[in-house]
């Protein structure tokens, strides 16, 4: 059997390692790798095992050989603010995690910078931010320390926002309630009676309002289960669906009665791709798989998805 190949000779170990890791990534998705293989990929990408410029040259060479395809899990280094935004955190949250890592390892290693990374396997994405150790410590001493002192003393100003979802007091915080109940000034009029800028003001807080309401309801339920009584409310059993108590016994019983208890079912796309492998899946099912357009959703302009044409814009094009 002949296999098309390019033989590389005399490579330094670091460069050879990059070739092995990156060709593996071109052949398989990051999600298809074993845990140890994923660790190797991340180590190769973010450790200084090979110069950045040389690694980029190798990647460009491999991408060209592969026809420009592949699965890139690397994103350029970002500020801690952009890094935190990917998980709904502020840049200060990310920096506090970095301080924790510094506290644990600074006495063991000679650290001059801290690399913060967010790994999102479902998106095949790794985002990285690097801060110098001195810069991080200056921020902690000059800003964080004083705010931590105020918080510990129960002083300072409460600040409600998206970050509230990580707070233990999110369901009972009065500041968060005030923040969300500002919508009450609209008296929940029918949307047709509101101005466009008023609707926009509501949309900005709509998701946070829904999250806050869900937090309060869940907290109230747990309190009610513990014996707290809320005027006008009671705890009841929720709706449930029927289920078999013993699936094997059901199958045997139905089979004995002369019926087939099973139905043939085509594997779903994810299961089929796992069965065939990504490359084979794309090869033999080309033209038989499509990704339909999703249901329209109204999102902030910061969302990365392209904007859809509205009905008005469609008429303009005609």
Describe it.
With 318 residues, the protein is mainly alpha-helical. The chain has twelve helices and two strands. The protein has helices at residues 13-27, 35-46, 52-65, 80-85, 91-105, 133-152, 174-181, 196-225, 247-256, 269-276, 278-284, 311-317; strands at 113-120, 125-132. It has a two-stranded antiparallel sheet. α1 crosses α2, α1 (13-27) crosses α3 and α7 (174-181) runs antiparallel to α8. It is extended, with a radius of gyration of 27 Å. Mean pLDDT is 76; it is low at 68-78.
Brief account:
With 318 residues, this protein is mainly alpha-helical. It has helices at 13-27, 35-46, 52-65, 80-85, 91-105, 133-152, 174-181, 196-225, 247-256, 269-276, 278-284, 311-317, and strands at residues 113-120, 125-132.
Radius of gyration: 27 Å
Oligomer description: single chain
Provide the spatial order of strands within the biggest beta sheet. 1-2
Give the percentage of residues in beta strands. Answer: 5-15%
* H/I helix tally: 12
| Overall mean pLDDT | 76
Q: How far apart are the termini?
A: 57 Å
Order of helices and strands: HHHHHEEHHHHHHH
| Low-pLDDT sequence parts | 68-78
Number of strand elements: 2
Alpha-beta content class = mainly alpha
Largest sheet: 2 strands, antiparallel
Shape: extended
Task: Indicate the percent of residues in helices.
Answer: 40-55%
């Amino acid at each position: 059997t002949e296999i098309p190949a390019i033989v590389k000779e005399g490579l330094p170990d670091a460069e050879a390692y990059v070739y092995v890791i990156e060709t593996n990534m071109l052949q398989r998705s990051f999600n298809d790798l074993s845990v140890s293989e994923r660790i190797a990929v991340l180590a190769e990408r973010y450790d200084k095992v090979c110069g950045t410029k040389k690694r980029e040259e190798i990647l460009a060479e491999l991408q060209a050989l592969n026809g420009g395809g592949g699965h890139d899990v690397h994103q350029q280094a970002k500020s801690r603010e952009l890094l935190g935004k990917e998980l709904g955190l502020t840049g200060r949250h990310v920096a506090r995690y970095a301080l924790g890592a510094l506290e644990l390892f600074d006495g063991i290693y000679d650290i001059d910078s801290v690399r913060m990374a967010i790994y999102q396997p479902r998106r095949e994405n790794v985002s990285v931010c690097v801060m110098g150790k001195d810069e991080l410590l200056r921020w902690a001493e000059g800003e964080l320390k004083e705010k931590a002192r105020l918080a510990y003393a129960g002083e300072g100003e409460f600040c409600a926002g998206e970050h509230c979802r990580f707070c233990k007091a999110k369901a009972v915080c009065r500041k968060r309630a005030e923040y969300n109940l500002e919508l009450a000034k609209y008296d929940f009029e029918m949307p047709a009676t509101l101005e466009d800028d008023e609707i926009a003001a509501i949309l900005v807080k709509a998701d946070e309002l829904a999250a806050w309401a869900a937090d309060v309801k869940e907290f109230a339920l747990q309190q009610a289960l513990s014996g707290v009584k809320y005027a006008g409310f009671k705890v009841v059993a929720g709706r449930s669906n029927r289920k078999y108590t013993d699936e094997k016994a059901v199958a045997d019983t139905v089979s004995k009665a002369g019926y087939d208890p099973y139905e043939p079912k085509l594997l779903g796309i994810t299961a089929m791709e796992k069965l065939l492998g990504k490359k084979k899946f794309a090869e033999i099912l080309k033209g038989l798989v499509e990704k339909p357009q999703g249901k329209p959703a109204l999102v902030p302009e910061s969302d990365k998805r392209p904007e859809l044409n509205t009905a008005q814009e469609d008429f303009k094009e005609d």
